[in-house]
Design a protein that fits this description.
The chain has five helices and eleven strands, in the order ββββαβββαββαβαβα. By secondary structure, the protein is α/β, with parallel strands linked by helices. Strand 9, helix 3 and strand 10 form a beta-alpha-beta unit. The radius of gyration is 18 Å and the shape is globular. The protein starts with 6 loop residues before the first strand and ends in a 20-residue tail after the last helix.
Length: 268
């Protein structure tokens, strides 16, 4: 492998414009092709690999993304840190469209997705107690606050299969549990990174109130058009945050980061 990278980013095709002198490469994996070519660039002396999880032309719905191939391709490049921003809906009134949430927990409500690299013959049980890298989370929080972004330091994201949005009944259930964020791609992306010993952080850009708020009928349910509008209005903030995070993330993990040791005690 002649192509190398330090930091990986999953996101939408709009992020290409903040990468200088991009070189695109195909990475073959044992799990089939990743979502698209990977864009390689250098920022502040760090090699960055960017992959649009839905494909450059957004042709892959969330339930058709080859998550294993995407993560394996990053691993093949030598990536040890991944930033996984996403558009997401809010389930709680205090988390408003335009806010950012650095999630610290997820609840999986997807089905049928290939969600592990460990299909045997060795039985492997990875801990998911703290699924996101705390070192990267603190960097995201710190840089977001420094930029004046309305940022929530933690939150649970419930991941649904999509591509449809929630019914009002489903949304009420998610709200009743106290979960803050809803999205369609956070599982198994983050856990697959964890299985490979890669640090992973999610930054959710809130675009809507899912199926509305039960105690405020004036809040409309989510639409695809509405999601795109809010995302485009706040995309520059996310790009600035990603750029600053890349310059801040150390290439050597801190002594309290255990992401590289996920297989320790995972096998009998």
């Amino acid at each position: 492998m002649t192509h190398r990278a330090d930091i990986g980013i999953f996101g939408g095709s709009g992020f290409y414009e903040f990468l200088p002198n991009v070189r695109e490469v195909w990475i073959e994996t044992p799990y089939g092709p990743p979502s698209d070519q990977i864009a390689l660039a250098t920022i502040d002396g760090k090699r960055v690999a960017f992959l649009p999880r839905h494909g450059k032309h957004h042709h892959l719905p969330p339930h058709k993304i080859n998550y294993r191939a995407n993560l394996w391709a990053m691993k093949e490049l030598g990536v040890t840190r991944i930033i996984g921003p996403c558009a997401a809906g809010s389930l709680q009134p205090h988390i408003k469209p335009g806010d950012f949430v650095v999630t610290d927990q997820f609840v999986n409500r997807t089905w049928g997705r290939e969600d592990t690299f460990f299909d045997g013959p060795i039985t492997t049980h990875i801990s998911a107690a703290d699924p996101y890298c705390e070192e990267l989370r603190q960097i995201a929080i710190g840089e977001g606050k420094a930029q004046g972004i309305p940022i929530h330091e933690r939150g649970t994201v419930v991941v649904i299969s999509g591509p449809r949005f929630s019914t009002r009944a489903e949304s009420r259930e998610f709200q009743s549990h106290g979960w803050e964020v809803i999205n369609m791609t956070q599982y198994p992306e983050g856990m697959l990174a964890r299985e490979l010993g890669i640090c992973y952080v999610n930054i959710a850009l809130i675009t809507d109130y899912d199926a509305g708020l039960e105690d405020d009928p004036s809040v409309e349910a989510v639409t695809h058009e509405g999601v795109l509008k809010v995302f485009q209005e706040n995309n520059h903030k996310l790009k600035d945050l990603l750029y600053k995070m890349i310059t801040t993330i150390p290439l050597t993990r801190g002594e309290h980061c255990g992401c590289a040791d996920t297989l320790k005690n995972a096998r009998g």
